[in-house]
Amino acid sequence: MMDFWSYFHVNISTVAPGLYAYVSMLDINYMRWVLWLVYPIIISFLLPLILAFCLVASILFLHFYSYRHGLRQAYAKDFWHGARQSLAVLWDFHGYIWHIVRILMEAFKVSPGTVQSCINLLNEGHILAIAPGGLREALFGDEYYQIMWSKRVGFAKVALKANVPVIPMFTQNIRETFRTPGWSRNILRKLYEKTRWPLLPIYGGFPVKLKTIFGEPIYPDQSESPEEFAKKVECKLQELINKHQRIPGSILQSLLDRVVKRKPKQS
């Protein structure tokens, strides 16, 4: 009696001789070479997930470790009692991790902020760092380093009302550390603008050379509107980027910057 594979072998050679010949000539070593070739691409997509997983796993380990004495006593009393206690600790971890994130944000004074809360911080003598581009610029900014602030002028209102200067700053090669695939930006940006869901694949974690550069303070003129002052700051920041950043950015060249001294751009 003919088994399945013999039947498949006979039929594919009869129905599709061209396909059969191609499959017969396909070398497994070639497939291994292709897989080896795409390994860096696969790893570059997995690395951000691995970093996030390691961070969460570390917090989970510390959380369980803090309950080690209670769990040891629970398992000594009864296995299932210990198992229930372990599950309770695991589910408690879900709330704990968000609590840790909130504590970290409070420790580093990270918050969404309102215009008035920012003014209050400045009046108290604090230095305030604001990212007008927010998540949109972080996700959809590319190697051409165009500023993506849309119509956000909140920071300009803060500077005008608090009467403080704005110091433009950017980090050289920052968009070469992590990238988003170009083919996905246009499609998923439309989804982001409608839903605010940051559904975008990220790859990278490249150890490129980073250097943070500060520009000259930009003092507000009380006769300016927030829109005018925001545009002035945007232009000054773009000039700073164009002066110090290789455009378009290159991951390979940014990696080489760690070992080869970079020539300053000609102004």
From TrEMBL:
One of its GO terms (cellular component) is membrane. The keyword tRNA processing does not apply. It holds the Pfam family DAGAT. The chain crosses the membrane at residues 7-25, 37-62. It comes from the Eukaryota. Keywords: Acyltransferase, Membrane, Transferase, Transmembrane, Transmembrane helix. One of its GO terms (molecular function) is O-acyltransferase activity. InterPro entries: DAGAT (IPR007130). Belongs to the diacylglycerol acyltransferase family. This is Transmembrane protein 68 isoform X2. The lineage of its organism: Eukaryota, Metazoa, Spiralia, Lophotrochozoa, Mollusca.
